[in-house]
Structures are given as structure tokens and as C-alpha cells.
């Protein structure tokens, strides 16, 4: 079974540019989550999709971040325009049900804004 | 506010030592407590999950305990090996999401 796939693995962009991160969940997993870890801080929840609908977006930091999940399959997280404080590692996870042991995390996208 | 604190932030031990990583949380209304391992450039690997009705879980050389009354969890690693070097994260699971601690970076020296 393929795991959660994220790409790119690394991205370096200039302040003010746009970056789009992609996450492919495990096939059949209705739940998709985005988390991020910024420098020196703990990993924090961003949002949760159930299929194509946003179930919980309480962790989205501001309106420069836009997450979509087309057709309930893969998801994208766009940052526009990127700021220096957006640098960090963005993790995606998916699960079939709403229980902790069903979660699978991707390896993350390391975003560096210069 | 649901805070998770991990102590120490970093730990360096010689191979073969037994060690304990600590995790504390502010809200005792916990549903699940999970320990993860993260290797550089890799994702989060689930190690042990303790459900709210349980007190501990064991897998090989790892043992995790949960004390809800004191708001603490510990991860015990027996006979540490260089391959155990990684960052260990504890996280509580409530309301369909994880709340993570900042992790303990473990280095096991050969």
C-alpha cells in the first residue's frame, strides 16, 4: 500500500512569491489533514478535509493560505504571497476513520522563504 | 488551551543505556496519547498509542505509560541503540486532531 505522498520535498522561494504544496493521501482515505512545523515551534494542525469538504480549518494562520481538495482525492496548499515566517515543514496526513491509530503522515515538504 | 510539553528537549546517551522521555499535558480530558518518531527528512512514524482507557503500551524495547490524573506520559526505551537516534514526539489526540509537543531529540552514541 502506498503511503501519503507529498511533493515537492523541498521548496525555496522568495518572499512575495506563490508556492503550492501537494499531498496525495492513501487511496480510500476520506480524511486528509495538513499540519506544519515552523522554526522552533511544535507541529500544529492547520486543517482537516472530509472528502472534498473542509471539516475544520481552525488552524489556518491567515488568508494567505488556501487549501483545496479536488474531488476528494489529492489536496493542495497554496501560500500566496509567501512571507519569511511561513518557512517550515508542512506535513500531510490521511486516515480512513476519525481515530488516532488510523492516521498516516507523509514525509513533509520543507518550505524555505528567503 | 491544550498544551503538550516535552522534557528534555535534547538527550545524548551512550549505547546500552535505558532512558525515559517525558511528556506532560494540561488537560486531563484526554482521549488518546501517541508517541511518534521522526527521522531527519522523514515523516512521523507512530510508535505507541495509548487509548484513554489504557495505562500503558509496550512494543519491543519501548514502553509508554499514561497517567491522566497527573497529566503525564513517559516513553521508556530499554537498552538504547544508535539506531534509536531520532526526534521523539508525543501528541494528544482530541477532536479529530493531534496536539504535539516540541519533541525530544535523542542521540545514542556508539
Give a description of the structure.
- The complex is a heterodimer of chains A (114) and B (110).
- Chain A has strands at 5-7, 10-13, 19-24, 31-38, 44-50, 53-56, 65-69, 75-79, 88-95, 104-105, 109-113.
- In chain A, strands 2, 4, 5, 6, 9, 10 and 11 form a 7-stranded mixed β-sheet that branches. Chain A has a 4-stranded antiparallel β-sheet with strand order 1-3-8-7, with no helix packed on it.
- Chain A is globular, with a radius of gyration of 13 Å.
- With 114 residues, chain A is mainly beta.
- In chain A, 0% of the residues lie in helices and 50% in strands.
- Chain B is mainly beta and 110 residues long.
- Chain B has strands at 4-7, 10-14, 19-25, 32-38, 44-51, 56-59, 62-67, 72-77, 86-94, 97-100, 104-109.
- In chain B, the strands form 2 sheets. In chain B, strands 2, 4, 5, 9, 10 and 11 form a 6-stranded mixed β-sheet that branches. In chain B, strands 1-3-8-7-6 form a 5-stranded antiparallel β-sheet, with no helix packed on it.
- In chain B, a hairpin with a 4-residue loop joins β7 (62-67) and β8.
- Classes of the chains: A mainly beta (114), B mainly beta (110).
- The A-B interface holds A 3-4, 9, 31, 33, 35, 41-45, 48, 55-56, 59, 91, 93, 98-101, 103, 105-108 and B 4, 31-32, 34, 36, 41-44, 46, 49, 89, 91, 93, 95-103.
Give me a quick take on this structure.
Chain A is built from no helices and eleven strands.
Q: What class, by secondary structure content of chain A? A: mainly beta
Query: How can the largest sheet of chain A be summarized?
Result: 7 strands, mixed
Give the rounded overall mean pLDDT of chain A: 93
Total of DSSP H or I helical runs spanning 4+ residues of chain A: 0
- The poorly predicted ranges of chain B are none
Termini gap of chain A:
37 Å
The helix content of chain B, as a percent range, equals: under 10%
What would you call the structural class of chain B? mainly beta
Oligomer: heterodimer
Q: Element order, helices and strands of chain A?
A: EEEEEEEEEEE
Amino acid at each position: 500500500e502506498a503511503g501519503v505522498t507529498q511533493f515537492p520535498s523541498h521548496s525555496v522561494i522568495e518572499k512575495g512569491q506563490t508556492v503550492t504544496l501537494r499531498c496525495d493521501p492513501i487511496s480510500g482515505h476520506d480524511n486528509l489533514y495538513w499540519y506544519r512545523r515552523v522554526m522552533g515551534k511544535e507541529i500544529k494542525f492547520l486543517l482537516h478535509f472530509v472528502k472534498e469538504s473542509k471539516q475544520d480549518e481552525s488552524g489556518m494562520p491567515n488568508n494567505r493560505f488556501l487549501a483545496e481538495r479536488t474531488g476528494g482525492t489529492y489536496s493542495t496548499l497554496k501560500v500566496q504571497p509567501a512571507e519569511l515566517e511561513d518557512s517550515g515543514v508542512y506535513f500531510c496526513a490521511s486516515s480512513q476513520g476519525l481515530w488516532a491509530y488510523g492516521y498516516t503522515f507523509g514525509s513533509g515538504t520543507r518550505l524555505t522563504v528567503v | 488551551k491544550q498544551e503538550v510539553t516535552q522534557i528534555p528537549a535534547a538527550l545524548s546517551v551512550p549505547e546500552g543505556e535505558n532512558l525515559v522521555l517525558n511528556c506532560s499535558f494540561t488537560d486531563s480530558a484526554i482521549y488518546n496519547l501517541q508517541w511518534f518518531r521522526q527521522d531527519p527528512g522523514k515523516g512521523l512514524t507512530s510508535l505507541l498509542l495509548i487509548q484513554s482507557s489504557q495505562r500503558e503500551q509496550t512494543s519491543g524495547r519501548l514502553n509508554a505509560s499514561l497517567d491522566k490524573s497527573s497529566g503525564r506520559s513517559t516513553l521508556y526505551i530499554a537498552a538504547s541503540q544508535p539506531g534509536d537516534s531520532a526526534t521523539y514526539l508525543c501528541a494528544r489526540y482530541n477532536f479529530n486532531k493531534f496536539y504535539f509537543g516540541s519533541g525530544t531529540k535523542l542521540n545514542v552514541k556508539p
